[in-house]
Design brief:
heterodimer, A: five-stranded antiparallel sheet, 12 strands, B: about 150 residues, alpha/beta, 5 helices, 5 strands, globular
Chain lengths: ~475, ~150
Amino acid sequence: MTTKSPESAQKSSRSAEKKNRLDDLNILKVQFPEGSQDVLQELLVHQVELEMQNEELRLTQQELVAAKARYFDLYDLAPVGYLTLNKNGLIVEANLTAVAMFGVAQKFLRQTVLSKFILAGDEDSYYRHRKQLYTTGEFQKWNMRFIRGDGSIFWAYLQCTVTDDGKMRVTFSDITDRKQAEEKLQALQDGLERLVRERTDELALLNVNLNSEVEERKQSEWRLLNEKDERLLAIQALREKEQMLISQNRQAAMGEMIGNIAHQWRQPLNALGLFIQRLGFFYDTPHFNKKFLDTFVDQSMETIQYMSKTINDFRDYFKPDKEKSDFHICGAVKNTLSLLDASFLNPEIRIVIVENDDPIVYGYQNEFAQVLLNILVNARDVIIEREISEALVTVTVWRDGEHAVVTVADNAGGIADDIIHKIFDPYFTTKGPQLGTGIGLFLSKSIVEKNMGGKLSVRNTDVGAEFRVEV
Amino acid sequence: MATASNSNKTISVLFVEDDGVILEVLVSVLAAQFPEVVFYTAVNGGLGLDLFKEHTPDIVITDINMPVLSGVQMCTSIRAVKPGTKFIAITGGPGPFVLHGSEENNFIFDHIIEKPLALQDLFTVVGQFIGEVATAKKQAWQEETGLRLII
């Protein structure tokens, strides 16, 4: 058997059905007159045909109802809005979803231009896409904003195709949520971007600041290094200055000594000159005899020895100490005093040495003598300046525990209270710029305290000043 | 040295010097050079002043820097008493010890000799002053007595 199409199958089943029903009715036919049997036959056939047609109609009607329901279900209740627009943009069809989305009654949709429902600013995109659609026939999709019946606005996503006869099929869905989410996201993103920008700016600024800080620190470091160098230079300069001061002081002391020597030599030279002149003067007189000649020789040589000793003392005194040695304090005191012999004679200054002990000290002997010289010369100068009569300088030597102490006390009236704490300052002098260098006591203090680890101080007594050297 | 008190004719000299050696040498040669002069000696200004008060010499030769009384102070006192006295100063040379106080005391010496002494210079000055003193004394005696000495 060949396969049949559904319609031909239907037809053949219908025919079969017809025959069956006819057969049923034919059973009834037996009870009626013959002449009417033909009419009856026709009527029966009609009835059967009608009944069958009715059945078919009923089935068709069922199918139509089902189809309509299906159509309704598929079209009207679709999850998206369907619209069909004619080529003028008029809405010819709209599904229920669309109606619901627009929030207007069905009748207000039909035969209205879609643009009526479009937000003013977005119309351009609608026209643009419609034109694109009609010219290219390409599937269009875009977002735009619709206005509902109550004036509220919603974002919609539209998809359109065009039919052969120029109609536009549109689906659209409400993407307000999505749009809002998008906007929120965008806002967030903008916010984040802004934050990032701000943060980046902050970091950039921070970076700049850090850089400039680093720069500053580098400069600081450089400055400090420079300072360190400067300080080292300064220290060196100070050391050099100190050396210079020491040699200046030595020179000043030397100058003092030369003055003393000149002073000390004047009498002997005068005497020697007179001895020699007298020798010539007495020759050819009764005074001139062997005894006189011998006396002359003795006296002259004595004088010459004395002058020679002065030279030796001067030379020994000014040899700078290369190294420390053990020396007797009393011996150093006496040596210094003998060097100053002549200058304490006129005007007469009495010097008394009191030796309570004879301590031995390990140090620089000549520098110590220089200190004593400074102090004694200062005492002498004050005595002369203040014209003290019965001037007296007392030098006392004794031992105090582990230390040797020498005090030089005068009766010249003392040091004024307002300057007594300044006398050890460098360049401080009471003698005026011509006579005083101001470095003698400063250097003495430096020698005693730094080189010999001792102490140099001064105080006023009832009658004058007392310097105390402790080593 | 003669210590006889002065007569109008005898000229006397006061020599003050604190260095004994110098004193001895100078007086010995001066005495040899000027045998007619009487010499008085002292070793400091105080003793010198005492001697002057006792003998009123005509000429004073003195060292400047001396103990007890300085040369200047001594001479100032003497000149106050006997203005006609001649003063010769012996100094050690320029320096702070020289003529100590002479500017303050406003004292002017008739002559200043510096050490080391040259004997010839000393003799010249002393001789000159002796001459002047002798002349002054003669005139004074002449005025006193109204007589004229035929010398």
